[in-house]
């Protein structure tokens, strides 16, 4: 039995797919299928039920997974520590970014980091903040940018954005000329939101319920620019962060401060407390903190709204 066989097996079990596991490991699907088949023959037991393109663990697979995860994590930790000691200039970092966060804040940071460390590869994964947090927790990502607050018993965190949400309405809307709008005034409106895997989806609905109404959601999207276009077309209203609102077409959309309550939008970068980080990942965190010009977020502050 080889450590590589266990690595392939654990990744396939995590993703419930040979093809997705192969993609994440930068190998071909036939390679991972053959390696796992060899492992099954060596153990004398099937590890997966193969159902078309999907897979799920057998009883034997469940038993092996419980042991293999510890073995693989220990091996990866050992290898990472040795690699980091040998050469800080080399490494691979997996970073998760929600789409609007990545586009707004990270191109310059990533570009400058690459110029300083050209042999460090960065693989970016774009997903909603909730999915990014889950993937950092399970180890599929090393680092992730998310909407705070976060569970600081599990994660280290630093904040790099503190803003608030603003209201978007089409020009000609009854509220378009208002100096500010209370959330309660939006009870009769139709909302355009981010999808459920985005943290803002739940945040906005929760605040509306606190204000005394359940928002009527007519459309959901993963793209802020599409949301703004839907508002401009009169499909509904939206609540978006200040950074995004600065790029709105003011000939078609009115942007209005939201009050009673003000809904904060804080972004932080997280990584697991109990997992080893490569020297490259540690340097990325330190570099990002310097470039973004922010500070470390103390645990009691990061989790104050949990």
UniProtKB/TrEMBL annotation:
Gene3D superfamilies found in the cross-reference section: 3.40.190.290, Winged helix-like DNA-binding domain superfamily/Winged helix DNA-binding domain
InterPro entries (UniProt xref): HTH-type_LysR_regulators (IPR050950), LysR_HTH_N (IPR000847), LysR_subst-bd (IPR005119), WH-like_DNA-bd_sf (IPR036388), WH_DNA-bd_sf (IPR036390)
CDD domains hit by this protein: PBP2_CidR
Keywords tagged on the record: DNA-binding, Transcription, Transcription regulation
Pfam families: HTH_1, LysR_substrate
Domain HTH lysR-type span(s) in chain numbering: 1-58
Record family assignment: Belongs to the LysR transcriptional regulatory family.
Designated name of the protein: HTH-type transcriptional regulator GltC
Source organism: Paenibacillus auburnensis
Organism taxonomic ancestry: Bacteria, Bacillati, Bacillota, Bacilli, Bacillales
């Amino acid at each position: 039995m080889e450590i590589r066989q266990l690595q392939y097996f654990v990744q396939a079990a995590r993703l419930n797919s040979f093809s997705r596991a192969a993609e994440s490991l930068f190998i071909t699907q036939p390679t991972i299928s053959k390696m796992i088949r060899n492992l099954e023959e060596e153990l004398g037991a099937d590890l997966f039920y193969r159902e078309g393109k999907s897979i799920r663990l057998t009883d034997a697979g469940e038993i092996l997974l419980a042991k293999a995860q510890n073995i693989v994590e220990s091996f990866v930790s050992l290898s990472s520590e040795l690699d980091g000691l040998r050469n800080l200039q080399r490494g691979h970092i997996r970073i998760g970014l929600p789409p609007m966060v990545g586009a707004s804040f990270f191109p310059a940071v990533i570009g400058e980091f690459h110029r300083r460390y050209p042999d460090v590869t960065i693989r970016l994964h774009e997903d909603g903040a909730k999915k990014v947090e889950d993937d950092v927790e399970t180890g599929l990502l090393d680092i992730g940018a998310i909407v705070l607050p976060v569970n600081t018993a599990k994660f280290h965190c630093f904040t790099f954005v503190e803003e608030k949400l603003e209201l978007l309405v089409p020009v000609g809307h009854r509220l378009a000329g208002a100096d500010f709008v209370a959330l309660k005034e939006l009870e009769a409106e139709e909302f355009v939101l981010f999808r459920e895997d985005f943290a803002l989806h739940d945040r906005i609905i929760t605040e509306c319920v606190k204000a005394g109404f359940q928002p009527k959601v007519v459309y959901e999207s993963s793209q802020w620019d599409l949301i703004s276009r839907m508002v401009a077309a009169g499909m509904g209203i939206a609540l978006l962060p200040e950074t995004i609102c600065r790029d709105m077409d003011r000939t078609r959309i009115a942007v209005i401060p939201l009050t009673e309550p003000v809904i904060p939008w804080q972004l932080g970068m997280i990584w697991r407390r109990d997992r080893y980080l490569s020297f490259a990942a540690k340097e990325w965190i330190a570099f990002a903190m310097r470039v973004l010009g922010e500070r470390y977020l103390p645990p009691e502050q990061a989790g104050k709204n949990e």
